[in-house]
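Notebook entry, structure prediction.
Reason for the run: the old model in the group folder had no record of what sequence produced it. Starting over properly, with the input documented here first.
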Amino acid sequence: MCSQPLCADVSLCKHRNIRFLVVSYHLETPPPPLPDRETTFQCFISVIAIWLLPKAYKYGGWPRSGEIDLLESRGNKNLQNPSGLNIGTQQVASTLHWGPDAKNNRFYKTHYEKNNANGYDTGFHLYKVVWTPNDMTFFVDNQQIGKVVPPQGGFWQLGDLARTGLKNPWTNSKMAPFDQEFHILINLAVGGTTGYFPEGMRNPKPKPWKNGSPTAMKEFWEKRGDWLPTWNMKGDTSHLQVDYVKVWAL
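New structure, fully documented this time:
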């Protein structure tokens, strides 16, 4: 925890060898430079993520209080959608999650992707969000990939959420729920049944579980002969490597 007033709550205690500086919690947030991880995963396995999550959940449970996905990327080198687009290590995405409930999460209106044929797993890359009282802009390697500018009616209007018949919880400001303190979470995960790894994708090995299966974790483990040998446990090529994280206000 930073000792400065108004500073962010930073949840990085589980991650070694991460250098970070926290000065203030919003307005401009240049960096998290994070190196891409080099990975030899050939099965549907890893998810790399840098998230900002609400400190107090003032507006209620997810996604009413918002979620900022500065970076998400799948750790498969050869994962392709049916059209042949690589959605593995050649693709990164930034997203805002927001809605009065999970059913009405309007993340797809604030989701941005960028592909790089050389892959994001072969060196360090810079992921940045600039967060002001009026908008939020995402960058990859200093190239803008998306900008969210809510109208005067805020995210409620942006999502056309009046038609849901639900009460607008975000009357504080047009940036609500993104007008509160958030903390940083750096995450390396595997699997998942939310659809982030869709069915029907192309990959050298088939996905070892079904998203709708009640025994997905068991199916995943039973197929460990497909994915475990691809994990380089003794080197850095399958590790999430982070150079530094910086957060400051201007």
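Summary: The chain has one domain: 10-238.
The old model has been moved to the deprecated folder.
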